[in-house]
Amino acid sequence: MGGSGGSGEGNAALAAVIHEAGCSHAALARRVNELGALQAEVSRYDKASVTRWLQGMTPRGRAPQFIAAALAGFLGRPVAPIDLGFPEQPQRPVVARALTYCDDVGETLHTLAELGSTDMSRRSLLGTVPFVATALMDPQRQWLLWLLEEEQAPRLAAVTDGGPVEQVQAMIDMFDEMDNRYGGGGVRASIVHYLSTQLVPMLQQRHMPVRQKQHLYTSAAKLAATAGWCSYDSADYGLAERYMIQSLRLCAEGGDRVLGGQIFAGMSHLATSLGHPAEGVSLARAGLATAKSAGSSLGLMRLHVMAARGYAALRDSRQATASLHAAGTALEDSQGSAEESPWVRFLDHHYLEAEAALVHRDLGEAQQAERLATASVRANGDRRRRQAISRSVLATALLQQDRLDEAIATASNALDLLGDVHSERSVQALRDFRGRLAPRRNEAIVRDFERKARPVLGAAA
Fold first, then answer.
1. Can you give the pLDDT at residue 157?
2. What interhelical angle do 12-21 and 25-38 show, nearest 10?
3. Is the pLDDT reported for residue 141 higher than 90?
4. How far is it, in rounded angstroms, from Cα 117 to Cα 395?
5. What count of other Cβ atoms lies within 10 Å of the Cβ of residue 120?
6. 423 phi and psi, to 5 degrees?
7. 226 and 255 in contact (C-beta within 8 Å)?
8. For the chain, what are the domain ranges?
């Protein structure tokens, strides 16, 4: 929370960017606190803190990253800590390279192998890698340029029978099942190990049939995206972002637009959940542009829902409602999961119910949120992560209707589920509920819940 170092000569670079952004010192400090809280770092900066930074003090830890992210949000363009007069942060080269969508796919494979190796053997080096919202914009632009240039991209990339492609697909199916049942935290290490020690070296072989290699690039993209989701579930947001960016580049090599759209859905979810809903909407729209001619109604449904999530977080009820309607239409257009790409067969009307409940929650439409979250709880008995999230959303919907006893009981059920689920997304949903209890913290039932929740959710901010 405090600062370290400082020349005492003042920070003219920071002053210039704050002036350009046109934000008050109090607004900047508040946004820095909010961004830190979204990545599990509690800070209590105020306008006096900003004055100290302007006087030359460098804040500790990841604060320079959060200050840069806050100002980038105000300005609508990328800002790095070094642009603000803060010292360049020492970091492993792979951490920086993994934020880049590289033209040379061989370099992408090298980056992914090194990222995976560091992830497995020197985990502590990556544990504090920051999420950088603006870093998602260049990969989005590069992908859309590729999309324009790709005149004959395949609609649905069929998986060939036999050989390594079939074996890799079997591993993907197994990892997906474990992730859905138990959360990403428990399976992430296995995915990263298989991807970096088995699949990447396979792709680095020179003599492989072109069509087979294309399918394996698509499979590697899927596994890298899953590693990103699982990192997200482990609260390693910066690492999740890096895996997703690399997965998008591999997906271009495989030419699978359905999977490309799903990678954008993941990026959108990550950005919106970490307090960058405008970027979340932009990423969802890039996914829609990718998938609109790919023959996957279920894939389009998910992307419309991700757009709705972003619009709801922006409090744009009209656009959020329109996106939900488009998602419902896409679902109706689907011929069923058996006719769709393997990358979207997990999507169904229950998925739409669960995500729509989150949209209505954020719009303050409590009765709709309650109805949809209740349906999701009933439908997802064997999916513990989805159960935990939907119960937390249901608890919030009940609280919004001033049904405190029912809300606390439902949230307590969600809390019990978290003992068997390694999922930061589930924890995040319950923290959202706990935050909404703040005005009623003097009531005994609320104090009891907060005491019970503290070992799992941490101290309230």
1. 47
2. 90
3. yes
4. 41
5. 14
6. -145, 115
7. no
8. 3-84, 93-255, 366-457
Which among 365, 372, 351, 349 has a CA at the least distance from the CA of 317?
365
Q: How far apart are CA 235 and CA 360, in angstroms?
A: 25
The tokens describing 127, both together, are 């544990």
Would you tell me the crossing angle of helices 444-457 and 424-436 to the nearest 10 degrees? 160
Range 397-418 average pLDDT: 94
For residue 378, give the H/E element and its range: helix 366-379
> What is the signed CA dihedral for 328, 331, 333, 337, rounded to 10 degrees?
180
Q: Taking the CB of residue 187, how many other CB atoms lie within 10 A of it? A: 23
- Quick count: other Cβ atoms within 10 Å of Cβ 24? 12
Q: d(Cα 300, Cα 352) in Å, to the nearest integer?
A: 12
By the 10 Å C-beta count (0-12 exposed, 13-18 middle, 19+ buried), 180 is classed as: middle
Name the 3-class secondary structure at 111.
helix
For the four alpha carbons of 164, 169, 172 and 174, in that order, the dihedral sign comes to: negative
Q: Which of 234, 228, 222, 322 is nearest to 267 (CA)?
A: 228
Distance separating alpha carbons of residues 222 and 76, to the nearest angstrom: 30
With 0-12 / 13-18 / 19 or more C-beta atoms within 10 angstroms meaning exposed / middle / buried, residue 121 is exposed
DSSP reduced 3-state for 437: coil
- Distance from C-alpha of 78 to C-alpha of 85, rounded to nearest angstrom: 15
Other CB atoms closer than 10 Å to residue 49's CB: what's the count? 24
Output the pTM of the full model: 0.80
Angstrom CA distances, 296 to 155, 259, 268, stand at 9, 10, 18
Query: What six digits make up the tokens of 97?
Result: 């390279």
CB of 411 closer than 8 Å to CB of 373: no
pLDDT of residue 397: 96
Question: Which tokens is 143 given?
Answer: 């992908």
Residue partners of 123: CB distance under 8 A and separation at least 6? none
Tell me the per-residue pLDDT of 323-339, one tens digit each, with 9 for 90 and over: 999 999 999 999 888 88
- Please provide the DSSP assignment of 130-196 as one string: PP-GGGGHHHHHHHHHHHHH-TT--SS-PPPSSHHHHHHHHHHHHHHHHHHHH-GGGTHHHHHHHII
The pLDDT tens digits for 355-395 are 999 999 999 999 999 999 999 999 877 777 888 899 999 99
Distance CA 96, CA 281 (A): 25
